[in-house]
Amino acid sequence: MKTFPMFLQMAGRCVVIAGGGEQAAQKARLMLKTEARLRLVAYDLEPELAGLVASGRAEQVREATVEAFAGAALVFIATGDAARDTALHAMAKAAGCLVNVVDRPDLCDAVTPSIVDRDPVVVAIGTEGNAPVLGRQIKTQIEQLLEPNLGGLAALAGRMRSTVAGAVPQAQRRALWDWVFAGPVRAAHARGGEREAARMLKDAIARGQAPGETGQGHIALVGAGPGARDLLTLRAVQRLQQADVIFYDRLVDPAVMELARRDAQRIYVGKTLGAHEWPQERIDAVIIAAARQGQRVVRLKSGDPSLFGRAEEELRAAHAAGIPVEIIPGVTAASAAAASLGRAMTERGATDHLILATATARDGVAAPDIAAMARPGATLALYMAVRQLPRIRADLLAAGWPETTEVEAVASASSAQEVQCRCILGDMDRALAGLANPAIIFVRFAKDAVAVPQTPHLQVVSA
Ligand code: SAH
User: What does the pLDDT look like over 392-421, one tens digit per residue?
Assistant: First the structure.
C-alpha cells in the first residue's frame, strides 16, 4: 500500500479550503458531511460558498498567509490555477498541515476515497489512482448492499452499548449484536420500522439475550430470480447473508449460492426429474426442524417463491409450528423471459390480460385446460409447458384459435444458456421441438382474433 486508510478526527477541528470556485465548492460539500469548522481562503467566493459564510457555517479569510492555514486538521487546495495551487501548497506545508491539492497527486499527503455514507457507518474505497472506474463500481455495489437508513441502526446500537454491557452477560453479547445486525431487528429497521427495531432490541436486553438463544428460529422463502445473480433483490441478498442454513433446489444457479455467508450450511433438496428423494413433506419437515433449533433458515426458490413453487405448503407448515415466516419476492421467469425478448407482456390497446399458468398438473390430476384460459387480448405465459406442446397446440387449434397466433419461447432466460424462439401456433410443435427445460412459452392472442370451435360441443336446436 502506498497510502493507508485512516479516519481523521473532524469534530470541533478546522478544515481549510483554499479557492473560491466550483472545485472548492465540491470539497466544501464533502466537508459539510463532517463536524469540522470550515475556513475558506479566497478573495471571491462563488454563490454557494458565499452562502456558507453568510449562514455562519464557514468563515472567510481573504489573504492567503501561512497563518491562514495554522492549526488545520486538513487542507484542500482547489483554486483551479496550477501556479497558485503550488504557492498555496508551500504555505500550507510551512504551517505543518496535511494537504490535498486537487488533481495534483504529486503534492498530496492525503487523497479522498470514494465514500459510501451511512453515517456513523462509513465505507471508504480507494484504488491509489489505478482504477477509478473500478472504485466507482465497488462503491455502487456497496451502496446497494447497505440499506439507506443503516446509519440510524448503528447509531441506535451506539446509544444502547452501555446498557447492553450492564444487562447482558459478556458471553451473550456478541450473539446479541449478531442477532441485531443480521436478523429481524435489522430487517425491521430497513423496512422503516425504526420503533419496532428499537423495541425488539430493548426486549432482548431486558431478557439478557438474543431471541435466537432461546430457540426462536425464522424461515424466509426467498425468490432467487430466474438465474442471473444480479436479478436477485437486495432483500434476497441480505437474507442469504444472514442465513445459517439454506435449502435450495435444481433451478437455483450456483452463482446465486455464492452470495450466501461462507459458513452457512447449504442443503440440496432438489428433485432430479422423476426422482422423489425430496418429497414436499420431507422438505417441510427439515426446514421446520432447522428453524426449531433456532437457525435462520432460507428456503431459496427459483423465480418468485409464490408462483408454482409450493410455497403455500411451506407457509402452512411454518404457521402450524408457530415459526415466523416471510416471503421475499423474486423476479419470475415470465418477467425475465419477456425482458430477454425485449418485449412487454402487456401492450396498451392490444393486450389487456396477462395469464400466468402452469401446463402441468400433479400426478393423477387432469392437465390444466389451456384452451379455457385463452381469450382475445391476452398474453398467456406458460410455465412447465415444454413437454406439453403437442397437446397445447392441438387444444388451442381445436378451440378455433388461428394458426397464425403468435408464440414465443425462452429457455433458461437470463442465463448463459438462454435460447429464444419465435413461431406461430400452427408450427409450434416443430419449431419448438428442441427446446430444453426450463422454458417459458408465451402465446399472444390478438385482440381481434375470434376463436371458432372446429368441432362444436353444443348443438343449438331451434324451438
Ligand atoms: N417460481 C418460479 C417458477 C417455478 S416452476 C418462477 O417464479 O419463475 C418451474 C418453471 O419455471 C419451469 O418449468 C419453467 O417453465 C420456468 N422457469 C424457471 N426458470 C426459468 C428460466 N430461467 N427461464 C425460463 N423459464 C424458467
Answer: 999 999 999 999 999 999 999 999 999 999
CATH topology of domain 14-112: Rossmann fold (3.40.50)
So where are the chain's domains?
Answer: 14-112, 150-207, 218-331, 335-445
> What are the tens digits of pLDDT across the range 49-62?
999 999 999 999 99
Question: What are the CA-CA distances from residue 79 to residues 23, 24, 41, 98, 209 (Å)?
Answer: 7, 7, 10, 17, 56
To the query of whether residue 249 is one of the catalytic residues in this protein, the response is: yes
Rounded to 10 deg, the angle between the 150-167 and 194-207 helix axes is 20
d(CA 330, CA 341): 19
Q: How far apart are CA 107 and CA 349, in angstroms?
A: 64
Q: Beta partners for 218?
A: 296
**Ligand 1 pocket check: which of 440, 441, 442, 443 to mutate, most ligand atoms within 8 Å of Cβ?**
440
Q: Give CA separation, 305 vs 309, 310, 323, in Å.
A: 5, 8, 18
Fold entry, domain 218-331: Cobalt-precorrin-4 Transmethylase; domain 1 (3.40.1010)
- Work out which ligand 1 atom sits closest to the CA atom of 441: 15
Residue 253 Cα to ligand 1 midpoint, Å, equals 12
Catalytic residue among 93, 271, 352, 429: 271
Grid cell listed for 442: 408465451
pLDDT for residue 461: 56
Fold category of 335-445 in CATH? 3.30.950
Kindly name the residue from 117, 249, 395, 429 that is annotated as catalytic.
Answer: 249
Q: Which residues of the chain have pLDDT under 70?
A: 212-216, 271-276, 454-463
Which residues does a 6 A CB cutoff place in the pocket of ligand 1?
226-227, 251, 301-304, 307-309, 332-333, 336-337, 383-384, 410-415, 437-440
Tens-digit pLDDT profile for residues 221-233: 999 999 998 999 9
Is residue 359 within 8 Å of 388, Cβ to Cβ? yes
- Among the listed residues 216, 328, 221, 335, the one whose alpha carbon sits nearest the alpha carbon of residue 269: 221
Place of cell 389487456: 352
Active site residue 271: yes
Q: Which atom of ligand 1 is nearest to the CA of 301?
A: 1
Q: What is the pLDDT of residue 278?
A: 82
